[in-house]
Design goal:
single chain, eight-stranded mixed sheet, 12 helices, 8 strands
Length: 319
């Protein structure tokens, strides 16, 4: 199964473009806060705290970053603005690495197996869940995999129709049933069809009702149990999609889903339309779940595997 070259120039340009509002709206303030200073003082640290919190890095993560910065400066000695930016980049990158955000390739390859690789996608309505599924399907297909989608969000006709549109755009089949059908039944049929046809990757869409509804969480458990009758270790990935532009609301959604189901990776979308890109850092730190994908635009190719080093460097305007 194929794979892309490691972080390419085109992907770096897409990343820089997608994070421009965060970089200009928030992180460029760091440079202004440093203007004319020859040392890091309490005033600068207070300003830095405000800058990170307003970018939705979160209070706890912000305090961690500032503490790490103070210790690093005391050890290495601060000389100028460029060096401080370098220290911040390094410390935030290391923080992300400690949280298991360490993609080593820039690809959409999957482990070889006789069974399909199954991804169950969860998240509330409006976060870009179905769009993310369509983009994932396209990327997996471009990487040399065969892909099938399962329309297990059977409670909204629009959800099935939207998945159909994305399936057509990506050139992959969509398994669906009538409106109101049992979502677990759709997932079961999808995996049976995928297994019979030698499909590499199956992506299952699920209902995006309110994240604090116990019925939805019970439904996700049922879908997982039914899929395991076809592929015993399914789903291999439970991907929670969050809207980065919602800031602290994304934290709350993550908290509810992580408490209720076995989320093991995150996709954070709509980063191109917000100055709240710091939410990626905060959510990674608070939940210790890898951010696997980030959405940087409306185009079918504007979904990237998350790379901590390139992400942080882009935020700080490094080339």
């Amino acid at each position: 199964m194929g794979f892309f070259n490691f972080f390419s120039k085109d992907k770096k340009e897409t990343l820089d473009r997608g994070l421009e509002r965060t970089k200009q709206g928030v992180f460029s303030k760091i440079t202004r806060a440093l203007a004319g200073k020859k040392t890091i003082d309490d005033e600068f640290l207070d300003n830095l705290e405000e800058i990170f919190i307003t970018s939705d890095v979160g209070v706890e993560t912000t305090l961690k970053i500032i503490d790490r910065l103070q210790k690093r400066v005391a050890r290495d000695k601060y000389v100028n603005t460029a060096e401080l930016n370098e220290l911040l980049c390094e410390e935030i990158t290391e923080l992300l690495a400690e949280n298991n955000n360490d993609a080593t390739t820039d690809d959409f390859s999957i482990p070889k197996s006789d069974n399909p690789h199954v991804i169950m996608v969860v998240g509330v309505n409006g976060v870009g869940k179905t769009t993310t599924i369509g983009k994932l399907a396209s990327q997996f297909k471009k990487a040399g995999n065969t892909v099938m989608l399962g329309a297990a969000d059977t409670f909204r006709a629009a959800a099935v129709e939207q998945l159909d549109v994305w399936g057509a755009r990506a050139g992959v089949p969509v398994v669906k049933q009538k409106l109101g059908a049992d979502p677990a039944s759709v997932a079961f049929d999808t995996l049976q069809s995928a297994k019979a046809n030698g499909i590499d990757v199956v992506i299952i869409d699920t209902a995006g009702r309110l994240h604090n509804k116990k019925g939805l969480m019970d439904e996700l458990t049922k879908i997982k149990n039914v899929m395991q009758k076809v592929v015993p270790d399914a789903p291999h990935e439970v991907l929670l999609v969050l809207d980065g532009s919602t800031g602290q609301n994304a934290f709350e959604q993550a908290r509810q889903f992580v408490a209720a189901t076995s989320v093991n990776e995150l996709a954070i979308t709509k980063l191109d339309g917000t100055a709240k890109g710091g939410v990626v850092i905060g959510i990674s730190d608070q939940f210790k779940i890898p951010v696997k994908y980030i959405g940087l635009g409306e185009g079918i190719d504007d979904l990237q595997v998350f790379h901590k080093k390139e992400f942080v460097e882009s935020l700080f305007g490094k080339k």
